[in-house]
Specification:
Length: about 130
């Protein structure tokens, strides 16, 4: 995997954080993560991204797959989730997505696109992650 040095991602004992260009950054506590997936879309700045959902409202954070530290971060997230997180959309068609975790949703489409090309988290996924 080639690396994008403009962005870096790191996972520690408490959170996952992205640091990007022009002071772009986010941090999510591991305890708030409800789903992890990947998306390949022409509407994103970096077409292939890791997506992290934190609640059932549809809020999600993205990190370029090529961000520095992605391989180590995926390994740490996999340990936290207790499941393998294997990316597979690197050669997929644009506007495709899939859930990596939780296992009950694995490989299902994560996003849907409307007629204007806007994407949103699929209602089925939101319902599934809202259950305790």
């Amino acid at each position: 995997m080639s690396v994008c040095h403009a962005a870096s991602i790191v996972v520690d004992e408490e959170s996952v954080a992205l640091f990007g260009p022009q002071d772009a950054h986010w941090r999510v506590p591991l305890a708030q993560i409800r789903a992890i997936g990947e998306v390949r879309s022409g509407s994103l700045e970096d077409a292939h991204c890791l997506a992290i959902l934190i609640d059932a409202s549809g809020v999600w954070f993205q990190a370029p797959i090529r961000a520095s530290g992605m391989e180590q971060s995926l390994q740490r997230l996999a340990v936290h989730c207790g499941a393998a997180l294997v990316l597979g959309l690197d050669r997929a068609v644009t506007d495709s997505s899939r859930v990596l975790w939780p296992a009950t949703l694995a490989n299902e489409p994560l996003f849907e696109w409307d007629e204007q090309g806007r994407m949103s988290v699929r209602a089925h996924v939101l319902r599934a992650i809202s259950k305790p």
